[in-house]
């Protein structure tokens, strides 16, 4: 019996140490994530304020100069891929692909310095310094993908309201340009309204409706918007009533939104399963069974 109690005590102690190690690793990862996110956010704010006083700070100067150097060595595939992502993200802080590469280079250097300091402090092998260096290298890509997802989410949420407003304006007797102007005037501020405003400016400059809408679909690259714009272009080519097409698209968009919400609600229990098993169950077992084991060991 003594051997069984000793084994159980060893298991409980090992579980506690494992949970403490996981909590420490999670805290370190969150700290590094917050550090790089704050750094990039600060850079974005400084670059967005260039019109107030030129280039602010040595960091912006380094990014611009590194961008000029990187322009000579960039390969076309990387240039096209990053430029496409920047357009989909709404061109945050007016970054160009070469400047985004400079952000990755700065992140790599900072991560390597942080890793060297960490390995020297804790006396571990130097190769562990490559982990924060890789995090610094790839974090700008993660940040850019996150900006794309946030922008798509805002557009998806704003699309039903703006589409209803566009439909009502067309059914009230306005042409497409006038209805779009009414949406820009009365709509809620956001990335979708900015895109509608850009389309309206292009139409007033003499660009055709089809070209303006296709440019908008290319910039956003969201399935719901692409489907809506394709229906508008098809109705324009076939001479179909624009109000009827917009009404059908509005109804279909709300049905798709309801189905997407039901899908996310169905996925929630599956996503909760891993943190439930990995974090909550072991803690509950330790709280419930530790007093019992301690009592049995000392009885």
> Helices and strands: which structural class?
mainly alpha
Q: Topology as H/E string?
A: HHHHHHHHHHH
What summary fits the major beta sheet?
A: none
What's the count of strands?
0
Report the principal-axis shape.
flat
Number of helices: 11
Amount of beta strand:
under 5%
Rg estimate, integer Å: 27 Å
Uncertain regions spanning at least 5 consecutive residues: 50-57
> For the terminal residues, how far apart are their CA atoms?
12 Å
Question: Taking all residues together, what is the mean pLDDT?
Answer: 81
**Amount of helix:** over 70%
Concise structural overview:
This protein is mainly α and 299 residues long. It contains eleven helices and no strands.
Provide an overview of this structure.
With 299 residues, the protein is mainly α. The protein is 86% helix and 0% strand. It is built from eleven helices and no strands. About 3% of the residues have low confidence.
Topology (elements, then pairings):
Layout: H1 2-48, H2 50-53, H3 58-71, H4 76-88, H5 97-122, H6 130-171, H7 176-186, H8 191-204, H9 209-220, H10 223-238, H11 242-298
Helix pairs in contact: 1-6, 1-11, 3-5, 5-6, 6-7, 6-11, 7-8, 8-9, 9-10, 10-11
Characteristic terms for this protein:
299 residues; 11 helices
């Amino acid at each position: 019996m003594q051997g069984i109690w000793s084994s159980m005590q060893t298991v409980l102690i090992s579980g506690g140490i494992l949970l403490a190690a996981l909590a420490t690793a999670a805290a370190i990862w969150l700290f590094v994530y917050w550090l790089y996110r704050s750094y990039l956010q600060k850079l974005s704010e400084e670059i967005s304020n260039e019109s107030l006083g030129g280039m602010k700070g040595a960091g912006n100067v380094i990014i611009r100069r590194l961008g000029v150097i990187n322009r000579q060595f960039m390969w076309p595939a990387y240039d096209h891929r990053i430029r496409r992502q920047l357009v989909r993200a709404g061109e945050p802080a007016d970054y160009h692909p070469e400047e985004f590469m400079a952000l990755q280079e700065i992140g790599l250097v900072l991560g390597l310095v942080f890793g060297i300091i960490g390995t020297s402090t804790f006396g571990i092998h130097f190769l562990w310094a490559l982990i924060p260096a890789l995090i610094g290298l790839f974090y700008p890509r993660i940040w850019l993908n996150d900006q794309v997802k946030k922008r798509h989410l805002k557009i998806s949420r704003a699309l039903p309201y703006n589409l209803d407003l566009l439909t009502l304006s067309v059914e009230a007797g306005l042409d497409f340009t006038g209805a779009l102007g009414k949406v820009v005037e009365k709509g809620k501020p956001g990335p979708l309204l900015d895109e509608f405003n850009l389309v309206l400016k292009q139409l007033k400059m003499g660009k055709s409706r089809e070209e303006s809408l296709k440019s908008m679909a290319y910039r956003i690259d969201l399935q719901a918007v692409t489907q809506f714009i394709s229906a508008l272009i098809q109705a324009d080519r076939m001479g179909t009533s624009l109000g009827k097409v917009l009404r059908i698209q509005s109804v279909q968009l709300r049905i798709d939104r309801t189905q997407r919400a039901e899908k996310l609600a169905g996925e929630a229990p599956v996503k909760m399963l891993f943190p439930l098993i990995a974090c909550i169950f072991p803690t509950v077992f330790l709280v419930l069974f530790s007093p019992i084991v301690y009592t049995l060991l000392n009885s």
